[in-house]
């Protein structure tokens, strides 16, 4: 899992960590990093894509 996460872009990894690891909602994670909820959801979609 850690190797797969290292292949993500820093922004996508941060979104995944905030939501999946830290348990924040998409809205709370978006506010924490200063992006819109839509932008954070796009990052989550990219992070969850199989490579």
Description:
This protein is mainly α and 51 residues long. The chain is built from 4 helices and no strands. It has helices at 2-6, 10-21, 26-33, 37-48. α2 (10-21) crosses α4 and α3 (26-33) packs across α4 (37-48). The longest helix has 12 residues, at 10-21. The radius of gyration is 10 Å and the shape is globular. It starts with a helix and ends with a helix. The model has no long low-confidence stretch (mean pLDDT 92).
Sheet having the most strands: none
Which percent band covers the strand fraction? under 5%
Secondary structure: number of strands: 0
Total of DSSP H or I helical runs spanning 4+ residues: 4
Task: Write down the Rg.
Answer: 10 Å
What is the distance, rounded to the nearest whole angstrom, between the alpha carbons of the first and last residues? Answer: 13 Å
Mean pLDDT: 92
Which structural class matches the secondary elements?
mainly alpha
Q: Give the helix level as a range of percent.
A: over 70%
Which series of helices and strands comes N to C? HHHH
**What gross morphology would you assign?**
globular
Unreliable spans are none
């Amino acid at each position: 899992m850690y190797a797969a996460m290292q292949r993500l872009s820093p922004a996508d990894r941060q979104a995944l960590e905030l939501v999946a690891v830290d348990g924040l909602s998409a809205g709370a994670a978006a506010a924490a990093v200063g992006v819109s909820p839509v932008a954070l959801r796009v990052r989550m979609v990219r992070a969850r894509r199989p490579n």
